[in-house]
Amino acid sequence: MFEAVSGFTREELIGSPHNIVRHPDMPPPVYEHIWQCLKAEKSWMGIVKNRCKNGDHYWVDAYITPTFDNGRLTGYESVRTKPNLERVFRAAELYASINSGKLPSPAVLAVKSAF
Length: 115
Description:
Blueprint: H1 2-6, H2 10-13, H3 28-39, E1 44-51, E2 57-69, E3 72-81, H4 85-99, H5 111-114
Antiparallel strand pairs: 1-2, 2-3
């Protein structure tokens, strides 16, 4: 399913960094917030705009959580679903405001609760 949506083949994706699907419209502070949560061993939930191989895009409602084995962080797991249009419009507006400088980076800390 992911291959059909993103346009990338399994071979292109396996072993590649996640930013292969990072869309340039996604504000860097949003990713900083995601990683702050994950590095603090907390989960993150929100809307993400991803890039397709052909340059198009798709939106996902993402839940990302650290995974552990015997108390040791071993990686991250993500469940992604199709968001409703209202959430996509709200995310697009928020991300455009962050990218244009209308909202300061600390506003990104409210990203999770904005959706």
